[in-house]
Specification:
The chain has 11 helices and 10 strands. With 296 residues, it is an alpha/beta fold.
Length: 296
């Protein structure tokens, strides 16, 4: 039996081209497949979605702002859950270092932890409304609270002794205040220590004689008290008025950063919250009380 001749490769190696109708059908199937892939990537089960628990610790006046940020973050990320551990006597840094919290809200950096700044807050020097001291310098503020200056008359004010009101050692505003003025560990021991801002305001108003008290307070809280009619005033520092714009551009130098401190290393939930705080919606929330970061 003879071998059958081999087929002509040139004639049979190519498949026939699809008709225009067949090409359209293939295109529709590919389009449908791409849509399905897109839906899968955008679905709640996608691994890139922000999901998990986040614990934020603090002890300062930022509580209301952080609560608002947390709720907005949860709304934007339905599978994210944020809890706040907030107490005047708590130690946020220790809570992060012992893994009881993921983020500590502070006003001073702590080198072992990574810091993200999300805003600014001024530190206001608060006195009674009747205290006619015109202004003070940074050095004079340091001298007042370290006990080197005892009478308002030394600063061009009334003939009365200065009654100091300090803040608890645990509060981040005290850390920032001492650090800013270079008086860490040098605060006067003759002062009265008061934690809650509301109690501080009541004490300044009620101190006898009323124009003798001096304290420091979150500028946002102090400005709110002044505009609300509380009998207090904020002293200019180095002839610069304590206001949002002067804090933003640094002319009012007695200010502290709003920092989120967390352990270094991969932390998707921490990173996502920090990004949200720096986003336009997050900065809008921060700007309701504090000075937001300059727009890039």
């Amino acid at each position: 039996m003879g071998l059958s001749p081999l087929p002509d490769r040139a004639e049979h190696s190519c498949l026939p081209l699809p008709s225009s109708g067949m090409a359209m059908s293939i295109l529709q199937r590919l389009t449908g497949l791409l849509v399905l892939v897109g839906l899968f990537l955008a679905s709640p089960g996608n691994a890139s979605e922000i999901a998990g628990n986040l614990v934020i610790a603090g002890n300062g006046p930022e509580q209301a702002t952080m609560e608002a940020l947390a709720r907005a973050f949860e709304k934007a990320n339905p599978r994210a859950y944020v809890d706040l551990l907030w107490d005047d006597d708590s130690k946020p840094l220790e809570l992060v270092q012992t893994d009881q919290a993921h983020i500590a809200v502070t006003g001073v950096e702590h080198p072992p932890l990574a810091a993200t700044q999300i805003g600014w807050d001024g530190i206001g020097i608060l006195v009674h409304l009747s205290n006619f001291t015109k202004d003070v310098t940074r050095q004079q503020v340091a001298d007042i609270f370290s006990g080197k200056v005892h009478d308002w008359a030394e600063l061009g004010g009334p003939e009365t002794r200065i009654v100091l009101i300090d803040r608890p050692r645990s509060q981040n505003i005290r850390d920032a205040f001492e650090s800013q003025l270079g008086i860490t560990g040098k605060m006067s021991t003759a002062s009265k220590t008061i934690g809650p801002d509301e109690d501080v305001l009541k004490t300044v108003v009620g101190t006898i004689p009323p124009l003798s008290a001096a304290t420091y307070i979150s500028l946002s809280t102090g400005l709110s008290a002044v505009t609300g009619g509380v009998a207090v005033r904020l002293l200019p520092v180095d002839k610069v008025e304590p206001e949002g714009p002067t804090v933003r551009d640094g002319r009012y130098s007695l200010r502290r950063p709003l920092l989120l401190l967390a352990k270094k290393g991969p932390a998707p939930m921490v990173d996502a919250f920090a990004r949200f705080a720096l986003s336009a919606p997050g900065q809008s929330i921060i700007g309701e009380t504090y000075v937001p970061m300059p727009s890039q």
